[in-house]
Amino acid sequence: MSARCVDFPYFLADFDPLIPKKEGPETSQTPSQPAMFGKISVLLVLLVSLVPAEAQDLNFIYNSGFNGRSGLNLSLDGMAEITPKGLLKVTNDTKQKSGHAFYPNPVTFKNSESDTAFSFSTNFIFAIRSEYPPISSHGIAFVIAPTRGLPGALAFQYLGLFNVSNNGNFTNHVFAVELDTVQNAELSDINENHVGIDINGLRSVKAAPAGYFDGQYFKNLTLTSGKEMRVWVEYDGTKKQIEVTMAPIAVATKPPTPLLSLKYDLSPILNKAMYIGFSSSTAIAPTSHYVVGWSFRMNGQAQDLTASKLPKLPSIAGKKRSMLFTLDVPLISVSLVLLVVSGVVYVIRRKKKFAEVLEDWELEYGPHRFKYKELYIATNGFRENELLGTGGFGKVYRGSLPSSKIEIAVKRVSHESRQGMKEFVAEIVSIGRFRHRNLVQLLGYCRRKGELLLVYDYMPNGSLDKYLYNQPNVTLNWSQRFRVIKGVASGLFYLHEEWEHVVIHRDVKASNVLLDKDFNGRLGDFGLARLCDRGIDPQTTHVAGTLGYIAPEHARTGRATASTDVFSFGAFLLEVTCGRRPIERQGPKDDIVLVDRVFVCWNRGNILEARDQKLSNDFVVGEVELVLKLALLCSCSEPAARPSMRQVMQYLEGDIALPELSLLRLSPSGLVFVHDEGPDDVQMVYQCSYVPESTLLSGGR
Q: How crowded is the C-beta side of 380, counted as CA atoms within 13 Å?
């Protein structure tokens, strides 16, 4: 006999032909052979029935109630009880309580602890009845656990399965399918009225709203309706597949499409011997969780339950009462306490979420300081669809200030400054005082934990580089490019000579030039900028910048000056005019250096050959030649040979003529002016290694 039948006393009736019946007075003390055979058969059946369930392929069904003909009684604890009609009532119109009902014997789920878990299936019919429908308090779960009763488990959101300390622990060895009517933000991401597959905790591995598939259409089911519903739970030990299906009680056969389907190996979760049953819990609303019928089978398909044989739920007529007049004082008190606690927790979390670093000395900077909450709202929580771009110093988001509706760009960076934070913020505020039409306006900053947020004017046309490289959708004509060049030159001149301090930008390049709505160029990204008093050389000793834009003396000494900005500006001029990057990788040992290419074109008398071929024929030849020659002059290896930004402005405006470039030579050190050719010529050695844009304020901050 390979299957265990719970209705054992009635199962024996099938063997009545083998059991001798007394037809009259016995004539012999020795039983006849047929009688002896019948007794041996009965004895064998009894012996088989006494073999523990864990040694058999268990198969049982409770289709006519959980008492009487059902044979083995369930193991109950907490608020669980069997009603006189045979219903399993796991909680009984209780508040803040839990109950458990387990099959009494352990069930073998695998041959040994290291083996693969067997297949199993179960189906049951349940109902959730609340005293104040449609409000319910939490739900019910089918559970497989290493013990009966789950010691230490809590009610409320823990469904009588876990507690605050063990929820989610891998040592729990608990598998459950929950039917929950209440969402708990800490434990579940799914709204109320859901079905979930739980492994060792109540944050479901997979969950879905309660319902079923009727053909190709999905139909919702309301767990708190008080009506009976069917649930099928199946595990295929070979495919390692879990499927959960549900339907109204009127649907007698399992729908072909499961509500939940999950590829998951339960072998590490299930011990060799486990207990199976139900667990439920309540909170502040008195609720009863019923199991009307239940069948289970190891290594096979559990029998379907026949609705006509099931015990009937009590009538709900007269049970619906007005919640306004029946809620007792304790319920109201608990509700108020929970409301207050929830409010306090919400406030604490919200404050923590928007917590900022604010020190007394920052108060003097007043309007330059933004609240993190304001920037969070402005950028819709820094959502990805507001992302403008990502650079070496962080991500930039588009936003709109909630108070003024001004469009802004917010850069989020991690601050790893070598300089004191106070000095750094002072410089940020100083840069915020820049007022020039060709500089991106820094509106302010915000500090939060290890993060720094810089707030700029929003430039709707983005950065210049996207209009120069990689076959852009929009190509700037020469008139637009020349206006951008003169604008950036004007901005650098302001930084070097017109503002109260000398500002060395240290990262002039096309990607740091932004375009406003009229395509005017504005120099931005002052993350590497250095301020110093006039007449004092900056003492920066750390190389910062981007390959192709770094002046040779800056690469050697780490000292940034106005002249190193001019060198970067020369590379920028070549970018805009030629539509190429300063250094283009062609292979491990084969790079194209743009300044060398332009010099070669100039040296053979056709400098216009180096221009961007995407430029139409309406460019001004004199202007293009001027910019390319000026770029060569700014790219000289010797700082003394480069013009100042004041002179650059004069060249671009045509106020003065460019110097003669006939003595310009291309040497291993770069472009140099050779006055007396010979072995004693002093030439700067061009040493420039790649320096990534990886840290904020890497130049001495």
A: 9
483 and 613 assigned to the same domain: yes
Question: pTM of the full predicted structure?
Answer: 0.47
DSSP result, 99-163: EEEE-SS-EE-SSSTTSPPPPEEEEEEEEEEESBTTB----EEEEEESSSS-TT--SGGGTTT--
Contacts of 24 (CB under 8 A, 6+ apart): none
> pLDDT tens-digit profile of 157-200?
888 899 888 888 989 999 999 999 876 544 444 567 899 999 99
* Residue 212 domain-assigned (yes or no): yes
pLDDT of residue 19 exceeding 50: no
End-to-end CA distance of the chain: 82
Same domain, residue pair 377 and 488: no
- For 464, the token pair is 């210049």
Mark whether 256 and 398 lie in a shared domain. no
Number of domains in the chain: 4
φ and ψ of 296, to 5 deg: -150, 145
* Active site residues per annotation: 507
Q: How far is CA 572 from the centre of its chain?
A: 39
- Token pair of 403, please? 């108070």
The answer to whether 235 touches 117, Cβ cutoff 8 Å, is yes
For the four alpha carbons of 613, 618, 622 and 623, in that order, the dihedral sign comes to: negative
pLDDT digits (tens, 9 = 90+) for 659-685: 888 777 777 767 876 655 444 333 332
Q: Are 193 and 171 in contact, with CB atoms under 8 Å apart?
A: no
Measured CA to CA, the distance from residue 105 to residue 396 in angstroms comes to: 62
Beta carbons within 10 angstroms of residue 514's beta carbon: 23
CA-to-CA dists, residue 470 to 465, 473, 579, angstroms = 9, 9, 10
Q: Are 304 and 310 in contact (CB under 8 A)?
A: no
Please tell me the distance from the alpha carbon of residue 99 to that of residue 91, in angstroms, as a whole number: 6
